[in-house]
Each structure stands twice: as C-alpha cells, then as structure tokens.
Amino acid sequence: MTHHTKMPGAAVRVQGLRRVYGDRAVLDGLDLDIAPGEIIALLGPSGCGKTTLLKILAGLEQPSDGEVWMGDTCVATAGHSVPPEQRGLGMVFQDYALWPHLSVQGNVGFPLRMRGVSRQEAARRVDEVLALVGLQGLGARAPSSLSGGQQQRVALARAIVARPQLVLFDEPLSNLDRDLRDSLCAEMGSLLRELGCTAVYVTHDHEEACALADRVAVVMDGRFHQLDAPQALWSAPRTRQVAQFLKLGTLLDAQWQGSHWQVAGAQWRCLVPPVAGSTAAQGQLLLPHGALALGTAQQDDHLPVQGRVLSQHYRCGQFDTWIDADWGQPVRVHSSERLPAGARVPLSLDMQRLHWFAAVD
Ligand SMILES: Nc1ncnc2c1ncn2[C@@H]1O[C@H](COP(=O)(O)OP(=O)(O)OP(=O)(O)O)[C@@H](O)[C@H]1O
Which is one GO molecular function term here (predicted)? Predict the structure, then answer.
C-alpha cells in the first residue's frame, strides 16, 4: 500500500482502507476517489460495512489500515484521526437527530454558532437555507411539532448551512413512506447539485441510490463489487452478486461447451461468446428483465425457447406473466393479453443482453 499520497483534484480519497473487528475484516481494502461536487451512494445489504465506512469518513471510527484524505489533509490512518468537528462535515441521520430543546432555527443555526458566525449573519443564513429546503416561516417551531419529512428537511438544512466540504447521509429517508422518500430524494439531489456539495450517501435501497448518486459503490463483504454510474450497474453488472442484489433478472447455472452455453435443464443453447480471458467452464448466465419476451423471433442458430404460463396479474397497463421455461426458476415477462395458466407459449430471447459470470468471480 502507498502512504501519504497527495490527491490533486479529489475532494476525498480513501486508500487501501481496512477495518478489522476481532479477526474479521469488515472493510477489506477499499479505494475511492470522490471528485469535488460528486455524490457517491454506498449501496449494499445489511452488515456489508457501509456504515463503518461512513463512520470512518466522519471520524467516529478509525481505520485498522489505510488512509483517508480530505482536500490535502490526511484525516485518518491507523495511528491518527482528525476529530469529527475539525473535518468540516455535515451529517444527516436516519432518526433526524435534532435537538428537542432547540427550535428549528436553533437547530439549523447550531453549526454556524460553533464556527463563531455573528448572530445577525447566522439568522440571515438560517432563513436562506430554510427557504432552500422549503421550510420558510417555520423557524420558531419545535422540531417535535413537524412531520417526519419536515424534520428531515431541518436535518438537511443543518447539514448544509455551514457549506461543509463533505455531507454524509446515513439512510436519511428510511423512516419515511415511499412517496415522500421519492420526492425528498429528488429534491435533495437537486439541492446538493445546486450547491455543489460533495456527498456520501448510505442506503440499502437501490432506487434511492441510483436516483441520487453520480456513482454508486455496491458494497458487499467489505469490498466494492462495483463502483460505477447507475446506468452502468444495469447494463454491465460486474459480479453475479451485484446482479442478484439489484434484482436485474434471473440467474441460470450454465456450462460452456466449447461452442455454446448449455443452460442446466434447458432445451436451448446460447451462443454468447465466453468472456475474454475467462477459462471457467462453469458459471451463471444472467437473463436481465426484458431480455425475454413472448414471441417467436428466434435466430437460426438457437433452439426455440418455450415456456408454460404459471400465473398472471395485471399491473400498470399490462399483465405481469410468470413463466416456467424448463430451467427451474420462473421468469417474468410482460404480456398485453390475458393467457390461461398452463398454456405453452413461445419465447424470444435477446441473446445480446445476456451476461455471463464465471463460477469464481
Ligand atoms: N464496534 C463493532 N464491533 C464489532 N463488530 C462490529 C462493530 N461495528 C460493526 N460491526 C460489524 O461489522 C459489520 C458491518 O457493519 P456495518 O454497520 O458497517 O454494516 P452496514 O452495511 O451499515 O449494515 P446496516 O445496513 O445493517 O447498518 C457487521 O457485521 C457488524 O456486526
């Protein structure tokens, strides 16, 4: 691992970061450069280490190995850690963490008071930021008199009022209902971009991560399985775990037979070439949603794929149709017409959209 590398251009640089509890590496060698103004989402299942990474960025935990840089300051190594209040951070937590004995104004103005900003200037900036988050006129209220969504706006206002160099979010929307989450997520994204904030946003909700972030880090077992723009996660998942976590489609066990893939249990062959450099003969094929459709548009060199209708339900203008296509796992296709359960139907498969993951990836 390299030590004390200067970081021209990056707002935050994480290098070779490890965090060990007992004999278990919860973070296992992470590297991450965050550009100024970039929003990064840390996305992953419960226990994957995303909160631990956020805490290390915040200064609430220390690395076991590796470094964290903010601007041109090294803020954390195994041996030293700059305290949270000296890192120039804003933070937004799941449970809002507002001070109940302070008014909305008092909460939002707190970071300015800590920085010695004059009372008059602080009042002006608090009014300005409350207007930005859509809470103008509510400054005198107690946080407890506000709805959950409003309280989270107060927390957001408090996090950005002092124009921090980095804003950290720990599942900020998970206590809110779906509609409010969607709208607040979109608003937060616009606001952070408007203000040019650099942000790291922890969530286990992939819709939220992809709606908000410039790049999403899919964290699993303490490693980044993929660090990419949201659209790249969908078009080119790097591991089958990413595909599984994002629910991109159906994974089928398959074997490379020298000239084609043979899917276990299926009557058809797939001619997607093996991944360059891969010598594995065993692995899994991902059939992304939408790669399979009702219809017979088979290419010459494939055996026709057929399936049996298992069930259907009507949703958003079409029938979600579950099909048993002989390979052991049902797949979902869309249909414009109602089909009887048990009917055999031809399926077309867009071979270009399949992905192959070698058994050991
Ligand atoms: N102080 C600690 N001592 C021992 N183990 C810990 C400690 N903090 C976290 N862990 C373990 O490290 C792993 C990662 O925890 P972390 O909170 O970072 O996960 P997470 O991805 O944020 O999960 P969640 O979404 O449930 O919050 C977990 O298995 C957790 O039990």
Answer: ABC-type ferric iron transporter activity
